[in-house]
Write a structure and sequence with these properties.
The complex is a heterodimer.
Chain A (H helix, E strand, L loop, with lengths): L1 H26 L1 E8 L6 H20 L22 E8 L4 H13 L5 E4 L3 H14 L3 E3 L15 E3 L4 H19 L5 E7 L2 H17 L2 E8 L7 H9 L4 E5 L2 H13 L6 E4 L7 H7 L7 E4 L10 H14 L5 H20 L4 H9 L3 E2 L9 E2 L13 E6 L2 E6 L18
Parallel strand pairs in A: 1-2, 1-3, 3-4, 4-5, 6-7, 6-8, 8-9, 9-10
Antiparallel strand pairs in A: 10-13, 11-12, 13-14
Helix pairs in contact in A: 2-11, 3-4, 5-6, 8-9, 11-12
Chain B lengths: L2 H32 L6 H19 L7 H18 L9 H23 L14 E4 L2 E4 H23 L1 H11 L1 H6 L4 H23 L9 H16 L4 H22 L4 H15 L9
Antiparallel strand pairs in B: 1-2
Classes of the chains: A alpha/beta, B mainly alpha.
């Protein structure tokens, strides 16, 4: 009796100590700063990205038992950091590069985050990553595609998405395939872009590639994203009689442009959009049938779940929480946080230099991501070399992968019907 | 370049110009009567749009039919804003007044975002939809309706100011507050009226815009700069000036954009604005 009581006391002590220590471990949190437009014109996009990040953090912290291919699906935090949980600290840059920079400074100096994820708008990413570089804090960018971002030779900047060079290159590859496979020749294009860093750089590249490929650019028009009307812009486009319009717009101006196309009865063979506004959930919801047949470049599409079930499974998790599907933006941001978590875990430390080193050694197989990529592996400049783009077409209010032709789930409809029909 | 394109462009400019004018009339009225620059004016426009949207979404009422309701509601909002906030700062230094209306702007935007989320909304099936074709020129029916509506409301405001006793009292207060008070005009009532009518103008403009423009909390920002240019150009406090300047800005913006390149369109408008300020600082129709 004496013995067993003693054993009982010892066991109890041991258990209490164990519980206390696991509790202490569980309480350890790794703060990651997150910088997105939570208010302002792009707030609806920001809200979706926030949801994607919260889901990713939740998977790391609490697991997603039925999806073993996904990293950290076992839950329980980061194993190499004694099960430390991820805590996201949100900051709102309102689409303003200046606010982006000051908020990043706040995240780093006051919130003491170990890394920053952001910031959707390329121009905000440009200023905010500069701050992170100065403070020597790793900055992971999942979703800004401006090429110049990884051409700055920053030491602390990592980007998982392919950049605009590659996306624009994809447009022209698509033209080439279209001619080879379907005998459709695109010879006359017009460029239509909003005039911040992103739109202008895209247009510059499109011009360059068009020249190299012998495609005639009949009009090149840029406009301020906060336009109250786009009549003169689109009238001008129309007068150039392009076969295809290559368009880079955010949500508000994308919707306004579509309405004006219809009003002015401007019917090119195709509008080839550069993602952003055209892939926002609100785009189809707002325009309904008028959104049909637009082709946009993407990095992700739900119909790819047919060949890669992981995409469908994770999307289901997202949809059950937020009542919307992933988009190219939110899927990349989701992947971004898991990539960062993977690096912090491998670093086994919250030291910035250790995380940076781990990031540069990242090697995630494509089959463990929800992206149609070969994987994630960064080059010297912090650019993921294994990413790629796809093209999707809206048919009956849904996005269907139409290019590369080997991934296509649907044949391309070309040209798009005229408005008057 | 055919004459068709020019007429088409002209028509588009004219129609958007009329909307600019209607928004600006509300702004110029408030300024004219009490010398306060209302930075939250764009938010009245936004509230007008949401008002139309919710009446449409919940009760399936077309924005066109609910315009009177929108006008009354926004009149109420304007009057309340005056009574609760503006009344207290009426004699405050100009800087305080600017900060107050600027604060209201942020408050309204924040509130809209909180209440209705930052999502983009649109009125899907208005009775005015589609385009009309007039000898080869395509005009969106919603834009046409909005333009005609803006003319009617402007005319109404003009008649109210020039033909009614209340309108005359409002004009008198605008001309000289003290003298008007000595003549027995209740200036508090006039100020409330000015804010009510001003907000209602923006609200109606919002209702008209809602049939073809996406609705979101930040929408006011898109229009407010143009509205200020229109008010300045037309002359602070002048309703007729705002109408002329609104049309002028709309047409120049679209035509200039088409002929010289869209990237210059705002520049052209602002150049004209500067030119007017240099040679007629009081604006086109402003009094010296």
């Amino acid at each position: 009796m004496q013995f067993s009581l003693n054993a009982l006391t010892r066991t109890a002590c041991f258990l209490t100590a164990f519980a206390a220590s696991t509790l202490a471990m569980a309480q350890q949190e790794i703060k990651i700063g997150v910088l997105y437009p939570l208010t302002g014109a792009a707030a609806s996009t920001g809200a979706e990205l926030k949801g994607a990040l919260e889901l990713a953090a939740d998977i790391v912290n609490n697991g997603a038992k039925d999806i073993p291919e996904l990293p950290f699906s076992g839950g329980g935090g980061l194993p190499n950091l004694k099960g430390a949980k991820i805590k996201l600290v949100f900051a709102d840059h309102q689409g303003n590069p200046q606010i982006g920079a000051t908020e990043t400074e706040r995240l780093i100096t006051q919130e003491k985050v170990v890394a920053v994820v952001g910031a959707y708008f390329s121009n905000v990413t440009a200023t905010s990553s500069q701050v992170a570089e100065r403070y020597k804090v790793p900055y992971l960018n999942p979703d800004s595609s401006s090429t110049s971002l990884t051409a700055r030779n920053f030491k602390w900047f990592y980007r998982i998405t392919p950049h605009d060079d590659l996306f624009v290159y994809n447009f022209f590859e698509f033209f080439k395939d279209l001619e080879a496979k379907k005998a459709i020749k695109v010879g006359q294009i017009a460029l239509f872009n909003e005039n911040t860093l992103w739109g202008n750089e895209t247009a510059k590249l499109e011009n360059k590639l068009a020249e190299e490929r012998g495609v005639n650019v009949v009009k090149s028009i840029s406009y301020p994203a906060k336009s109250t009307q786009l009549t003169s812009e689109i009238q001008s486009l129309k007068s150039g009689k392009p076969q295809v319009v290559l368009q880079s717009s955010y949500l508000g101006d994308a919707i306004l442009a579509m309405k004006t196309y219809k009003e002015l009865n401007f019917s090119p063979d195709m509008i080839l959009a550069n993602n952003a506004g055209f892939t926002d959930t609100e785009f189809i919801r707002t325009l309904g049938q008028d959104a049909d047949h637009i082709i946009t470049r993407e990095v992700w599409s739900l119909d790819l779940a047919k060949s890669k079930p992981l995409i469908g499974q994770v999307n289901e998790l997202f949809r059950s929480r937020y009542k919307v599907n992933f988009t190219g933006n939110s899927s990349r941001t989701f992947t971004g946080l898991l990539t960062l978590a993977d690096a912090i875990n491998r670093a086994g430390s919250t030291e910035p230099e250790a995380i940076r080193k781990a990031l540069s050694e990242t090697n995630i197989d494509g089959k463990n991501t929800i992206m149609p990529w070969k994987g994630i592996k960064f080059d010297q400049q912090g650019q993921n070399t294994l990413g790629s783009g796809i093209l999707v077409q809206i048919v009956n209010g849904k996005y269907h992968t139409i290019w590369p032709f080997n991934l296509a789930t649907r044949d391309v409809i070309w040209p798009m019907p005229k408005w008057v029909q | 370049m055919t004459s068709e394109i020019i007429i088409q462009t002209l028509a588009s400019g004219l129609l958007i110009g009329l909307i600019y004018a209607l928004i600006a009339i509300g702004l110029t009225l408030i300024f004219g009567v009490m010398d306060i620059v209302n930075f939250s004016h764009g938010e009245f426009l936004m509230l007008g749009m949401y008002c139309s949207f919710w009446l449409y979404a919940i009760y399936h009422l077309d924005p066109l039919y609910t315009l009177p309701l929108t006008a009354i509601l926004l009149f109420g909002v304007g009057a309340i804003v005056y009574r609760v906030v503006i009344k207290k700062i009426i004699d405050a230094p100009m800087l305080s007044q600017i900060f107050t209306t600027f604060g209201l702007m942020i408050l309204f935007r924040g509130l809209a975002q909180f209440l209705w989320k930052p999502d983009f909304r649109t009125v899907g099936n208005s009775v005015v939809s589609g385009t009309v074709s007039l000898s080869g020129i395509q005009i969106g029916l919603p834009q046409l309706t909005a333009g005609v509506g803006a003319i009617l409301v402007t005319l109404g405001i003009y008649l109210f100011l020039t033909k009614t006793r209340t309108g005359a009292a409002l004009e008198a207060t605008a001309a000289d507050k003290e003298a008007a008070r000595l003549m027995g005009i209740d200036s508090q009532r006039m100020f409330t009226l000015a804010w009510g009518v001003g907000a209602a103008c923006a609200g109606v403009a919002g209702g008209l815009l809602s049939t073809f423009f996406p609705i979101f909390p930040e929408i006011g920002a898109n229009f407010i700069l143009t509205a200020f240019v229109v008010v300045n150009l037309g002359g602070f406090g002048s309703v007729v000036g705002a109408l002329i300047a609104g049309i002028l800005v709309g047409v120049i913006e679209v035509m200039g954009g088409f002929f010289l390149g869209p990237q210059y369109k705002m520049g052209i408008v602002l150049c004209l604005f500067l030119a007017v300020l240099m040679f007629r600082p009081q604006g086109l129709m402003g009094k010296v």
